[in-house]
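Supplementary Methods S3. Input chains for the assembly prediction are listed below.
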Amino acid sequence: MDIKILLLILVPLALAFSIPLVDLINAKLRRFFVLVGILLESYLLIKIITENYTSLIDGDFFLQYHLGGWHPPYGINLVMDSLSLLFVSIVTLSLFLIVIYSIGYVGHHEGKYYVLYFLIAAAAQGVLLTGDMFNLYVFIEMLTITSGALIGFKRSHPASEAAIKYLIYNIIAGLFIFMGVLLIYFNLGTLNMAEISNNFSLLEDGVKLFISSLFITAVLIKMGIFPFLFWLPKSYDTAPSPVTAVLSGVLSKVYLYIFIRLVWTVIGIDTLTAYKLDILILDIALFSSFLGHVFALQSNNVKRLLGYSSIGHIGMILAVIMLNTEAGFYGGILHIISHMFMKAGLFVALGYLLQYTATHHYDDFQGVGIRDTKVFVAFIILTLSMIGMPPLLGFASKWYILMAFLEARSYFGAFIVIFGSLTAVIYYLRYIAKGLEEVKLYKGELRMEIFSRPLISVLYREKIVSFITYSYTAIIIVFGIAFRLLDMPLNMAIKSIFDIEKYIHLVLGG
Amino acid sequence: MFINAVFIILFLLGFYALIVKKNLIKMVIGLNLMEAAVFFWVISFSDIGGEVAIHKLNEAAVNFNDPVPQALTLTGIVIGASTAALLLTLIIELNKFTDTIDRDEIEGLNN
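Predicted structure tokens for the full assembly:
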């Protein structure tokens, strides 16, 4: 019983609902409040890590909180094992960086923005920490509603379209999860993940297959894997830059966590291998990765291009995880971390670079590199990491993914990794070349473009924004050189994925 | 059996409205119909013809309906209402720019 786990969810939740009250007193206090909240959240996390440092080293780290004092399998319980700790740490770091970026970026309607942002933060932490199926569903729906509202935040024509499309896809996915959860309840009479995982293999074959396919379809829709990828690039394009950074940097990784948790802990990978579903998902993911990279080649809109490239990378991660080997998980989770920082960093850099342009079109990219040289260098370093250049983090993770595919003799997967890198060279070089082209701009024209932008005005704290871009680049470079630092947390997370009996024992007995 | 038939008909009706109808508000109605079908199925499936699940002190409750699916469905209904409200808000917002709610005339929704 450690109340700090509950506070990890409650702090952003309380902050989200206290921001409108703070606005009533004095709107200038708002940013101070936001900073205090996110610092408190980081403090809680650091406190958890330092207090349990010895058990972390020994590899038996496990924390649990029973809401209302009900011992599982009855009440709702929050569980934190090594896998959730790793994800909570990287998600909190991302949210921390993006919230500071937002202070510099979001000009109008700041209050509403922070309410939605901290609701996303609370829901993401909740998804990562919960040990109860229905609670998981509620947090997933919270993510859907808040991120849908944030996608439509600009209130322009394309933003509303993208948000409607996003919501329709995601509501259907949520409905599938609801059906799956209730089918589990009717068949097993419990909602606790450990209890379900204990008894799931006793079910009839048809029921098992139906429940697993409901969950897997829902999570595939939410991650944007092949048959359901059409909502993703559009919503990445129209959302404001910090929101896109959250969508690609936090949400898609949280859904990957849900996938790992559901398939390995709750359903059990043996159920999937019995029906050969794992090979099906592997092939779908690889095909989706292929399609993502091909679509990215023909895209003339830089944010949409990054969305398609996200589809490619997430497909690759899903495929390497579905190999169900330790090497596969090592590469997959390392790539989750590196993609989280690379992609969010790219969107953050684009938010700075494209501040004067009306659209994100290829032609508008002309000359941005000459206008803001320093940030453009950071942008180039981040793209090099996406391609997989050696001293950067992207290289380390892609290398391990490639090794995992070769070890499992999945040569199509190895081909996709190389193919993704090669196409990435083509589509990023095009934009870098365009960015360095010289263009004559008059000051008057610039100002016209600034004031024609809807609602979210031009950056007025450029220093904060460029600083966050540099820190993303620094993370990529530092961890790229010293990626062995991530060795210990990754191995612990992998151990807790495979050791399901220990999870069940600790939740039900501890 | 009857419950399953009603569930399937309602669900497919909602799905039909979502896929075929060109009017955005009708699409939202279709989504809600799908949700309503699932909720209906859950509630009627959990009804085993027993008593209300209120524990009385000197009686041993033998045969009562499980209250948990009802509580879960209540949460589901709240979530469904809020998503529908958000969707309708976005449709109003979109209508300000396009002056139509026909899916075919709004080009961005089709690609």
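Residues 388 and 395 of chain A are 4 Å apart (CA to CA). The mean pLDDT of chain A is 87.
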